[in-house]
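Sequence design from tokenized structure. All designs in this work follow the same two-part layout: the structure record, then the generated sequence. An example of the structure record is given first.
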């Protein structure tokens, strides 16, 4: 039914990652001193933690590992005239950047530094916005069961059969996107091995300067080798 809004979860659903983890790892890499502040922020609530981490780093939406099959289906739904809402427990700044990149979402609902929009809070917010049974929901975790109880239909993504059964007891299942098999060929793409060859160029200046016998040089090169990353426009095109 094209008139029924389609609400889409982000972490583990639209993307094969968790944006809180992505932000924390980016802070660890780029601003390691701030890692010591994470327990203090967390003591104030997950919404505060997500907001503070998001403010410290910049994540390029084009580089995220999107669920390609789901994304293609969402684009078809959008082309058919359906209203798409990105609804996530991730921080609003992160969610809005992703929505702007993908250009398929009509609205963004997300954590705002005060409310952590997950589980029952997400369900309550969607019921207030669309009414009970007034939306379909795309999710992937047991936390989404609370939302499916209030939804018209469920779209289950990357979930075990037990979760699909749980969703089926809450509402009608429209579609199931199965978990992608983890083949050995996936790991080179995840680790981006093809980029490592270019990173070897970092060693050339030290070799030319005959500095490879110094421990401090090797330490710096090792850190740079792991941290030196770039993202191509082709990644955005594939997304």
């Amino acid at each position: 039914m094209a008139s029924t809004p389609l609400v889409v979860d982000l972490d583990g659903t639209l993307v094969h990652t968790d944006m809180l983890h992505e932000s924390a790892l980016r802070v660890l890499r780029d601003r390691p001193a701030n890692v010591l502040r994470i327990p203090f922020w967390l003591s104030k609530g997950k919404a505060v933690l997500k907001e503070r981490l998001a403010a410290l780093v910049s994540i390029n939406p084009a580089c995220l590992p999107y669920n390609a099959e789901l994304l293609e289906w969402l684009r078809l739904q959008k082309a058919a005239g359906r209203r798409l809402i990105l609804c996530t427990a991730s921080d609003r700044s992160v969610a809005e950047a992703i929505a702007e990149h993908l250009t398929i979402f009509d609205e963004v609902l997300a954590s705002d530094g005060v409310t952590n929009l997950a589980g029952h809070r997400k369900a309550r917010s969607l019921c207030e916005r669309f009414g009970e049974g007034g939306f379909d929901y795309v999710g992937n975790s047991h936390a989404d069961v609370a939302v499916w109880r209030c939804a018209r239909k469920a779209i289950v993504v990357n979930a075990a059969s037990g979760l699909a059964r749980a969703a089926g007891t809450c509402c009608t299942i429209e579609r199931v996107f199965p978990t992608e098999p983890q083949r050995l060929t996936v790991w080179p793409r995840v680790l981006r091995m093809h980029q490592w060859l270019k990173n070897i160029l970092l060693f050339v200046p030290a070799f030319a300067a005959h500095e490879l016998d110094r421990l401090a040089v090797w330490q710096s090169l090792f850190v740079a080798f792991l941290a030196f990353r770039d993202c191509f426009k082709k990644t955005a095109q594939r997304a």
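The chain is about 50% helix and 15% strand. We note this feature because it recurs in several other targets discussed in the main text.
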